[in-house]
Amino acid sequence: MKAVATHFIPWLMSLTVIMRYFVIALLAHVALVIGLGLKTVVVTVLPPSARFNPEPLPPPVDSPATDPTTPYGEGILSPPNLQASDQLAKGHNASILDSSPVDDPAGIMGVIAATVATEPSVLRPASKPSSLNLGPADGLGTQPSSFSRPGGPEIVRIVGDREKRRMQPPPGTHHNPAAERAVLAALRWLKDKQREDGSWECHGGPEAGTALALLAFLGHGETVDKPEFGATVQRALEFLVSKVQPNGNVTGNMYAQALVTVALAEGYAMSGAPALRTPLERAARFIVSAQKAQKEKVMHVGGWRYSPGDSTSDLSVSGWQIMALKSAANAGVEIPQETFDKALKYVWSMYGQPGFGYDAPATAPGMTAVGILCVQFLGHGEDERVTTALRWLRDQKIEWDTLGGWAMYFLYYATQAMFQGGEPFWPKWNDQMRTMLLDRQAADGHWPLPPKSGEVQSLEKTPVYATALGALMLETYYRYLPMYEVLKKQR
Asked: Which DSSP state fits 198?
């Protein structure tokens, strides 16, 4: 290097100015070409197993104590287990190349997406243009998702036909203009409460709160190109993309993990935006890996709990993971059939006739709703045990002022389970649920929590949770196709 400097620099300076610039430019281009060539070689020589397999999960950690004041343990937005999060931060993150999408053999999209996901500048004020293209690709934004994946019937979401289904609902549902006004009022309230970085404040962390709020917009058919809510959806998606680490972990809290995965899956299914594909795949694969954590009890095998390495399982956390994986599969992400089979076996291990329990066979309203919906989405909704559980659930009294436990959580899952159950369950449930929500919505568009619910203590000060769930309940009949229609299409 010293000899080069001794002879090259004097020679370079002896040239004319124009020739000097030419030589420097030529060397710069040669260096760039060599650098790109080396990068391509490094990426492509990696075997598929090195690029696609996630890192092993951390060893199991002690589970947080179950809260005896509620029948469901910790709440839907419970704080992350810091011990597990710390373990994940210390050497358990997969490299960027470990999570490259399978349809990108060179791994370049994985590198780009990981850079976008961790680049702080992606969280910009709404007044600045976005560099993350979340718009439709090849017209996918106007077409319903139609991927055929394992795990039983798809969770089919309507995209282009949502407006039609609002005006022409399925049997047992009547168009209600007041309900549509209530949803719009809730969305406008949520839009007003969105923070500059695209998130929403919510107890338990902005990731889960943002995912719930975003799902309310997506459930109404809002995409990034819509005039009133497009910018809101764009910023929320950017925020969630930025929170998915290269190994797929979001926060170390499996509730947030599942909610973010559901939101990214629905966003991708509705838009086909390539920028969402890689973070969605990573988040879903992290859930698949977390199911493999060693369990202390045989009945807990196939389930999930608060932290990815927990040695126990509960139906509340597991229900969200199943919804997340079904949503990802519906968006075109390959999920192993074994994952769904083990999850179904776990759900049935919680069956206590006539319903389902939290972490052992029992019958509790909220967990019965979760169990029913999971079995329905996993392709066994016609099982007689599901019909028996639906009858029991239908007979439960739902009055706003007397609902205890995690009331909004229960109502959200029960509404979906009743809708999938069809006649004779859905019409009666829908009428009373809708009337109750319309009567209790605040003038500014948000929903408070039922006064005796167990959610009040932790979630009352951040009504994004209740408002998003309220909107999602009213959107149920045009957000999803009933399972009997799905099965008819598949036969």
From this structure: S
In a domain, 49, yes or no: no
Closest C-alpha among 342, 343, 333, 375 to residue 149 = 333
Residue-wise pLDDT tens digits, 262-282: 999 999 998 889 999 999 999
Computed from CA positions of residues 259, 261, 263, 269, in that sequence, does the dihedral angle turn out positive or negative?
A: negative
**Nearest partner of 447 among 431, 426, 468, 429, judged by Cα:** 468
Q: pLDDT tens for residues 138-155?
A: 333 333 333 333 455 554
> What pLDDT is recorded for position 341?
98
Structure tokens at 207: 């990731």
Q: What is the DSSP letter of 210?
A: H
Phi, psi of 252 (to 5 degrees): 95, -10
**Residue 236 in tokens:** 């929320």
Q: Which amino acid is at 478?
A: Y
- Indicate if 126 and 241 belong to the same structural domain: yes
> Widest CA span of the chain, in angstroms?
94
Amino acid at 396: Q
**Preceding amide of 354 cis, omega within 30:** yes
Q: Is 156 inside a domain boundary?
A: yes
Tokens of residue 145, six digits: 């998702």
Whether residue 117 sits in one domain with residue 20: no
Q: How open is the CA angle 117-243-320, to the nearest 5 degrees?
A: 130
Say how many CA atoms lie within 13 Å of 336 toward its Cβ: 14
**C-alpha of 436 from chain center:** 27
Closest CA to 283 of 207, 230, 223: 207
Q: Which helix (H) or strand (E) holds 114?
A: helix 108-118
125/197 Cα distance (integer angstroms): 6
Residues 6+ apart with CB under 8 A from 26: none
Q: Which domain holds residue 16?
A: 2-35
User: How far does Cα 18 stand from its chain's mean position?
Assistant: 57
CA distance 472 to 470: 5
Place of tokens 């490259």: 100
Tokens at 102, concatenated: 């399978």
Tell me the pLDDT tens digit for each residue of 253-267. 999 999 999 999 999
